[in-house]
Specification:
- It is a single chain.
- It contains 12 helices and 12 strands.
- It has helices at 5-12, 16-24, 31-43, 50-53, 75-88, 102-114, 130-137, 159-172, 189-204, 220-232, 245-257, 291-307; strands at 62-67, 92-97, 119-122, 142-145, 153-157, 178-182, 211-214, 239-242, 267-272, 285-288, 317-320, 323-325.
- Strands 2-1-3-4-5-11 form a 6-stranded parallel beta sheet, with helices on both faces. It has a 6-stranded mixed beta sheet with strand order 7-6-8-9-10-12, sandwiched between helices.
- α1 crosses α3.
């Protein structure tokens, strides 16, 4: 007969919930107790039922992680960092996506609630945060990654600085007529901050206001639409800054098919430095977002909040620094 947590608890004279926490690596269990439990579990040939562990007591070893879109490679390094760090602490990651839809986000959060996740790391849609506030009131720590949100711990890039960095780079290269490609999502605050920094540099250098191409999404298709708009524009810019790399890739892809070759015919600068941007048809110059570092910091902060559930914390806001990656798409 397979051995259970209750068998181990009976052997050691412990509460089953204590055994469960010890086997899941819960930080509130003393090392001496953990060692006793692990030794007895090995002696008895115990094989953990990970789901059952989370039905004993109120504590679990599950963490919910939600991103906006699985289709955006931006999230690969961040999620990998969260998994790497969580695994060292004995936690398991449940991953979901909102697809930039608030109702989907609420549904996934409810799923995390029902599996009794110990904490949640999320890149939220931002149009409404009531469901996250409720989760926080229930004692479940929430870390916002890649966005800033009042009343929540937030880890994000200094997006206004990255916009300035982009503008300064293109101006230094000698471009005079500049454009900005954006989704236009009213809740995409990072995009708006990047445009703000970019516009400030243009103004400071006495250049004509940037041409703005609003395409409705942050995907390859949005970049292709921007390519159409650029071709139709009688005052087309000499270089464009794209609010993310997928837009830049779609823009380049559309133009290359028509025989228009960046950087010779137009300079293109992306944002995020997503995986594969260095191997694109035209290796993409971009503003790098330290995505793995953001995942590490989000997990570290979440573990700290989980370990001290009874303490009141003032929400912490962490701003990461962007960096310029020079490749071949503008010169």
């Amino acid at each position: 007969m397979a051995k259970t947590i209750k068998h181990i608890a009976d052997e050691l004279g412990l509460n089953p919930s204590t055994v469960s926490r010890a086997l899941s690596g819960h930080p509130q269990i003393a090392e001496k107790t953990r060692a006793r439990v692990e030794k007895k579990a090995m002696e008895m040939g115990y094989t953990p039922n990970l789901w059952a562990q989370n039905l004993v007591g109120s504590a679990t070893n599950l963490i919910g992680c939600m991103v906006l879109e699985f289709t955006n490679p931006f999230y690969i390094p961040m999620v990998r960092a969260i998994e790497d760090c969580a695994d060292k602490k004995g936690y398991i990651i449940f991953i979901g996506e909102s697809r930039r839809n608030l109702e989907t986000e609420k549904h996934v959060i409810d799923r995390f609630r029902r599996i009794r996740a110990s904490g949640v790391i999320i890149t939220p849609v931002l149009s409404n945060l009531d469901h996250l506030s409720m989760l926080k009131k229930e004692g479940v720590p929430v870390i916002v990654a890649g966005r800033n949100a009042d009343d929540f711990d937030s880890i994000n890039l200094d997006n206004e600085e990255s916009g300035k960095m982009a503008g300064n780079h293109l101006v230094t290269l000698g471009y005079k007529k500049l454009g900005f490609i954006q989704s236009g999502d009213v809740f995409n605050i990072p995009e708006q901050d990047r445009l703000k920094g970019f516009s400030q540099v243009i103004t400071e250098n006495g250049l004509k206001k940037e041409r703005l191409y609003t395409v409705g999404n942050n995907r390859i298709t949005g970049g292709e639409k921007a390519g159409e708009l650029w071709l139709e524009d009688k005052e087309r810019p000499e270089a464009v800054f794209c609010s993310n790399d997928l837009l830049a890739m779609g823009f380049i892809q559309y133009l290359v098919k028509l025989g228009i070759s960046p950087p010779h015919d137009i300079g293109v600068l992306g944002h995020d430095d997503i995986p594969f941007s260095d191997n694109f048809v035209v290796p993409l110059s971009t503003i790098a977002f330290p995505k793995y570092e953001m995942g590490e910091l989000a997990n570290t902060l979440l573990m700290d909040r989980i370990a001290k559930p009874d303490l009141h914390f003032e929400p912490k806001t962490i701003a990461l620094e962007p960096s310029l990656v020079i490749r071949n798409s503008c010169n």
